[in-house]
Amino acid sequence: MTTKEAMSARHMVRKYTGRKIPRDVEEQLMERIHQNNEKCGLSMRLVTDNADALNMFIKLVLAKGVRNYIVLAGKNFEDVDEKLGYCGADVMLFAQTLGLNSWWVGGTFSRSGVKKNAGVADDERIAGIIAIGYGATQGIPHKSKRPEEISSYAGTAPDWFQEGVGAVLLAPTALNKQAFNIRGEGNKVSMTCDNGIYTGIDLGIGRYHFEAGAGKNHFEWV
């Protein structure tokens, strides 16, 4: 499965089976996390066989069987949220290529439970978690905006721009707001996002998806 195929196949999954992640799959996932940490100066980590990531209400009402998760953490520098969004998106889609399902959890995780089990330092920010494992279902597509609601291009939009926008609309965003504003002219593209406290995370996720959809060789960010 390619990254583009993973973007189309990935949907939010909140309920998981008890199937353990095989060791070889876990090692591939940990290596991908390590690569992203090294590239962006983050400290994301994988926690397995632990049920403390969600508070009791969420576990009873919304989610079942969440026992593996990726902690989105890093030193609290200026653009840490955007980097966590970007790198988290990479790891999430890589997990999909390995046959795993996922759920990006931004505001309803148990901060104390995660910190206790993941060894997060006091000077590190936890921006959320990605629940991961074998889903009871494959999930369903989320409701999406139309491309023209989040983007515009000066002139006739080339295929790569349209594919990039389409990829962004497949991305998970806080409260599914898809609060993006993507503008293109020639090979120059700008992207902004206005989603309150989740702006940085959503912008990082959106940038990753656009690059994966459009192809980095077709454009440059401005």
Describe the model.
The protein is an alpha/beta fold and 222 residues long. The protein is built from 8 helices and 8 strands. The chain is globular and about 50 Å long. It folds into 2 domains: 3-133, NADH Oxidase (3-Layer(aba) Sandwich); 147-221, putative nitroreductase (tm1586), domain 2 (NADH Oxidase, 3-Layer(aba) Sandwich), CATH 3.40.109.30. The model has no long low-confidence stretch (mean pLDDT 95). Strands 1-2-4-3 form a 4-stranded antiparallel sheet, sandwiched between helices. A 4-stranded mixed sheet has the order 5-6-7-8. One of its GO terms (molecular function) is oxidoreductase activity. Residues 3-214 form the Putative nitroreductase TM1586 domain. This is Nitroreductase.
Mind telling me the CATH class of the largest domain? Answer: Alpha Beta
The CATH homologous superfamily of the largest domain:
NADH Oxidase
* Widest β-sheet, arrangement of strands: 1-2-4-3
Radius of gyration: 17 Å
Secondary-structure element string:
HHEHEHEHEHEHEEHE
Low-confidence stretches: none
Q: What structural class do you assign from the helix and strand content? A: alpha/beta
Instruction: List the total number of helices.
Output: 8
Overall number of structural domains: 2
Rounded to the nearest angstrom, the distance between the terminal CA atoms is 31 Å
CATH architecture of the largest domain: 3-Layer(aba) Sandwich
Number of strands: 8
The average pLDDT value, as a whole number, equals 95
Judging from the principal axes of the Cα atoms, what is the shape?
Answer: globular
User: Mind summarizing the main beta sheet?
Assistant: 4 strands, antiparallel
CATH topology of the largest domain: NADH Oxidase
